[in-house]
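for the record, two folds in this file. i put them one after another cuz i was lazy. first one right below, seq on top, structure tokens after. the second one comes after a little note so u can tell where it starts
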Amino acid sequence: MRATVDRITLEVVCEALVAVVREMRASIIRASYSSAIYELDDFSCALFDPQAQMVAQSEDHPGHVMPMPWSVKCAMEDFAGDIKPGDLILLNDAYRGGTHLNDVTLLYPVHDAGELTIFPSVRAHWADVGGMTPGSYSGLATSIFQEGLRIPPIKLYEDGRPNRAAHKLIEANMRLPDERTGDLEAMVGACRVAERRIRELFAKYGRDVVLVCIRENLDRSERRMRERIRALPDGVYVAEDYLEYYDEGRFDPVLMRLALTKRGDSIVADFAGSNPQVPGVVNSSLAVAGAGVFVALKSTLDPGGAVNSGVFRPIALKAPEASIVDVRPDAPAGAHGEVRKRAVSVMLGCLAQMVPDLVSGDLCGTSFPNSIGGRNRARDRSYVYVEVPAGGNGGFAEADGSSAYVNVDFGNIRSIHNAESIENEMPLLVERSALRTDTGGPGRRRGGLGMRRQVRLLDGEAVYSVLGDRAVIPPFGVGGAGSAGHLSVSIERGNSEHRFKTPGKVTGHRIRADDSVVMESAGGGGYGDPLEREPDLVRRDVIAGLVSLAQSRTAYGVVIGAGDAVDGAATARLRQELKAARVHLPVVVDERDPYEGIKGRHRTLRLSPASAQRIGAAEGDLIELLGRHPVPLRAWVKLDPAQQSSAPLDAFARQALGVDAGDSVELRRLDMPAAVRMPAQAAE
């Protein structure tokens, strides 16, 4: 006979489960060894049922917890019928529900009266898991074997006894084995805390009542999400965007495409047409790409509701196998955060067509993980520094985007690493943390700014690596808004500055004492036409140093005169001139394949030389097209003397922009770093 529960008991038990997760988090922060965990909060906790459904989480990292059901399912498949009390399962496999290899997952099955009931679980970022560079971040890796130790589901404890061979194998492949052991013990301790609290709940309410509460909570979460989906207009919505990949040093962007089909109270997210996987880091699993889909949908439609597997039930995921969104061995998968964030971007593109008032400009679009590894001679031990400088968030209908602040898919992770912790533990000096002027996408509501984080090496030598995106293709604005500022990294040595030929992706670059690593995060895209922004808000931004005088004129059409006063008449004239100078071309149907690339695929747009000249573009320049739908489409110029003064578009592009033959689209040229050349040009 199935137990029944009243509403009060249901709420109390469900909140108690969330409290269990919060206590797990507190335990890890107190006990972990790595500052990436106890300072940056780069870890997550959750509870799962025997069907691999997530039943509770807290202020956790969505990019961790949303793919975790895949990991739990894979572990249960591997140990079907062989999960006993006292077993602990460890894994980090990027092909089996993992994210990148640094995110190590511990599953702790709790039995009651011989029956498997709940899985407490922790996924924590280990600062180093081996591989070709300290920190295991390799922006230019070509195989997963270069990214670190890959751990399939293994029993780290069996019948309560530690598997010492597994422990030794793991420690032998990590640069800081004592730190990894400490973090692992913190994870185990947190799960033991969860087990005690779960048993207390069973004792107080009865196991059957607790399990019924879990089922009821999942079901009502599903109903709540279906109600919100049902309110959306039925239809098929499409969008595309890019990840930045380098093929032997040549820039070769890879394509992510999404078709979002909404029917009734369910959604199908299909990544058909996305790039086949490449021998570079910009691949990940469908679990990770799916996390981006869930984050964008949940935060848009129901930001205040619970996050559990019931919420995921109305959403089906599809993707081509062996693609950048459904990777297969042995392609690297280190840029999981960038793949997830790009899935958020294409979801924004689709959702903006459905509910334009509920979306924002694009997020900064990258996790931007940086690492420095070397030897601390004062302490006679190795160190690995990890930094993820936060970028900007997109502007939205009600307000400007937040600056240097974690994006919605990062949960409770800190915006920047604690300077005192860094300087106490490593031979590093944090020289600067400041907002980057003009990096917020111009709009009626401005995008948030990126930040400049500068760290100096004080002693010895070290190696620097970074695995970022949006260093070439900037975060987009919506509703006619402008793009945000790019991500940028460089090394300052004396009066010289070294910039990389592969912007955003660096592996093992050697630095020496007194070198400064400069990490500049991207901004967030704007919202709405920047010529409609209130002039006084632009004036305030200029005074605050968020917007330069030059950008106030060129992007916002606001003239600020003596005494920081807005010149109203000059502003009105300038705005009329800027609006009249916008370039529009009529749409014509052209179903030729618009994509080119080496291993990547990027959209090209055939333009006459005269049309390209009107927007100041040359062959291979990056441009964007704006149509009726709020999100632009990006393409690279392909000069065609036979082309008329028009914009030839295939069916996908016309659908993404919401235009048809005879309509017009606006064209804008976008800046790219000078070091980057397109594949066709580089091959000449």
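(here's the note) second protein begins now
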Amino acid sequence: MIGSIRKHSSWLWWIIAGLTIISFVYFMGQAPNRNGGGRAVGDFGTIYGHTITAQDFQRAQGAFYLYFWMRNHQWPDKSAGFNRDDMDREVYIRLLIDGKARQLGIHVGEDAVVAAANDLLRSLDRGGQPVAMDKFVEQILKPEGLGVADLQNFLRDEIVVQQLIQVYGLPGLLVTPAEAGQLYDRDHQEVSAQAVFFTASNYLAQVAVAPAAVAQFYTNNLAAYREPDRVQVSYVFFNVTNYLAQAKTELEKTNTFEQYVNSAYQQYGATEFADAKTPDEAKAKIRALLYRNRALQDARQVANDFANAVFAVTPAKPENLAAYAKQKGIGSGVTAPFSANYGPEEFNAPATFTKAAFELSADEPFAGPIVAADGIYVIALANQLPSMIPTLDQIHARVVQDFRSYSAVALAQAAGTNFYFSAAVQMAAGNSFAKSAVAAGQSPQVLPGFSLATEELPELGERASLNQLKQAAFTTAPGHLSTFQANGAGGFVLFVQQLLPLDTSKKAAELPVFTTQIRRSRQSEAFNLWLQGEANRELRNTPFFAKMTAGAAKQP
């Protein structure tokens, strides 16, 4: 699904800053196209009777690349989560939208593109240091085979999408005040309830750990104990905090730094820093983010110099990393073995770190610099461990712990099920829920009022999810018991006492914003339904649809 330009704190991550609208207008006539993947050739199908050309496909692909980068801060083919089929789907959706715009006679003029560029490029500014468009093209777009034309195409696509949302999402705006009020009541009507929780930890002492039972449990769950392919890497970490002081000094030297801070506050203060109590506090947050991003840039430069020196050592051996780090007085470390699904346990590594680690080999033992939120990594291969299932003796303690946890959950759930039936009988005889619970040796807990709109309920702890509690509460009639609700912690039985009266003054204050949110949500849903219908019909004449259909046919 193609969305509009998202204004978020990600604007602080852009590498190039201060693109001026004048330079953008100047480059409007200079339009290199994406060709990084080679010129597209072959049959691309038809949409709305229009034959898709290689140029059409390349145009949409270039716009998608920019869309992906702006959303994820990396190019698609360098992202661990990149999927070629996902990209092709998005490209064809862009082609479909372009075709519909052509059908409807929607034309996005240069003034609209310039205005959109002005909004976007202001968000790319870092530290009040403007750079020319040619530098942006040279450093950011050109290495990926992109040019100003791709930026123009992306902006036109986004403007067209917004116009189509206004047209095909119109039914979603037709939410009457009465309907909005009913929806508000549904979401905010609180319920009063009591619960009895059956937590597995309370039943651990009852679990008998017999060797034969543990061995059988291990045998029955062999697949769960299989260790995936794992790697160990040695690493050198360039922590962003080591460069903050220098970054602060350098940024504050510029005459335009405070001007930029003020501009950023005017543009983003109300949305990105809404938690700030005063303008000065918001500006302090902006400065802190700018300091950190400049420090991250400086750390990357140092890491890059370090990596170049290590990679230049011959012969290329993994141990060169730690040796050079020691020579330079820089600390290094070695991770414990980790899988591709979870990454290192020692620190919160980005997906690019894990992806790079699993691409290391004896011939290519190094990777980096790898950018993380808190610094830069340079890594080397330390060990590769193939998939295997440890023997019971090797992981006996772990298996025993798993067996005890599994058995305790089963005991808790059996107790909860028995309680439900006994409480139902007691209450049918006229006893209260509390009295029925006490008679069964349980302690009922009175929960604070909650509604479908409630976002957190600390009283639950880890005993149940809030969604599970809501599901039980709002599918059970007031004055009745829910059935036993099982979960990984054990489960619970809920007694729904009554629906609580709505706070009418709160409703009156919140209803206007709630109504706007409902209308926007319905508008988006209506547009998505339209787009889905168009895609299901028009993409039938494309090789992408044929590929997806063939893939689905192979599924068991």
